Amino acid sequence: MLGEDELRIAIPSKGRLREDAISILQEAGMRFRVSGRRLATACAATGARIIFTNTADVPGLVAEGVVDLGITGSDQVDEKGVDVVEHRRLGFGRCRLSVAVHKDAGFARPDELAGKVVGAKFVNLARRYFEERGVADVHVLEIQGAVEVMVLLGLVDAIVEIVETGSSLVENDLVELDEVLQAEAVLIGHETPRDEAGRDRLLRRIDGVLAARRYTLLEYNCPASRIDEACEITPGFSAPTIQPLHDSDWCAVKVLVERAAAQDAVDRLEAIGCVAILETGLRHARLVDDRS
């Protein structure tokens, strides 16, 4: 039996979000075993319980209070239309929901699908999309299998489907007409969790993981005469840490930079005479204290 006071967290039992969901929780210090077909496992260090379930079921479980937190796709939350708190966007599982047709079908715009049959896993999002654009008499047919092949079989005229790289559409001679929405993995929660302190602690830990994924640490020696230029290149999260060296013509600098900008920063620092430039990856970073 599950304890009544333990924090319950639902994550996907399979699919494209499963491994990343496990990874971010473990990087946040949650230690639990993932074995076979086991659908629930305990985290002894935190007293939380991890529940493995279908990705599409997570929003409903959170909304009903069966679990306190859940990791799922933002598209699933939008599809279910349930009342949950979106705590964090997690930065993985990014994709888009798109309207697609066969390349030879002759459709150039979504409004040309009026009166046609559209296959979709996300039927509510598909219906809402066409209704908001005034496209009348679109019959949205729920399909939970391989949606792309249904166009080739002639069952549907178009599909509304998740697109990551677009390779599956190309392989099935399909082209995108329009984008319905962008989606990514989210951490959602119930307004009144069983363990509020445990929830807040986990949120701070996940913030630390997300910050570590976003930032990297640069350390370098900079000519004292160029330190202002270096600080413009690497202003840091708050400000760089600058220390004088034994040779007064040089300073040692330690600073956080966004990973995406790190290599450009290194090139620019080198160009103004900085040396011994080191980049160190982060495992965890608490950048702000928002507990008050």
Q: Can you list the strand order of the major beta sheet?
A: 2-3-1-4-11-5
Radius of gyration: 24 Å
The number of strands is 15
The helicity comes to: 25-40%
- Structural class assignment: alpha/beta
Distance between the termini: 35 Å
Characterise the protein shown here.
The protein has helices at 18-27, 58-63, 74-80, 123-132, 147-152, 167-171, 196-214, 227-233, 259-271; strands spanning 8-12, 40-43, 48-53, 69-73, 85-89, 95-102, 117-120, 139-142, 158-163, 174-183, 185-189, 215-223, 241-244, 250-258, 275-281. With 292 residues, it is α/β, with parallel strands linked by helices. The chain folds into 3 domains: 8-92 and 184-194, Periplasmic binding protein-like II (D-Maltodextrin-Binding Protein, domain 2, 3-Layer(aba) Sandwich); 95-183, D-Maltodextrin-Binding Protein, domain 2; 215-281, Alpha-Beta Plaits. The chain is flat, with a radius of gyration of 24 Å.
Observed structural traits:
alpha/beta; 5-stranded mixed beta sheet; 292 residues; Alpha-Beta Plaits; 6-stranded mixed beta sheet; flat; D-Maltodextrin-Binding Protein, domain 2
Short description:
By secondary structure, the protein is of the alpha/beta class. It folds into 3 domains: 96 residues, D-Maltodextrin-Binding Protein, domain 2 (3-Layer(aba) Sandwich), CATH 3.40.190.10; 89 residues, Periplasmic binding protein-like II (D-Maltodextrin-Binding Protein, domain 2); 67 residues, Alpha-Beta Plaits (2-Layer Sandwich). Helix content is 28%, strand content 31%.
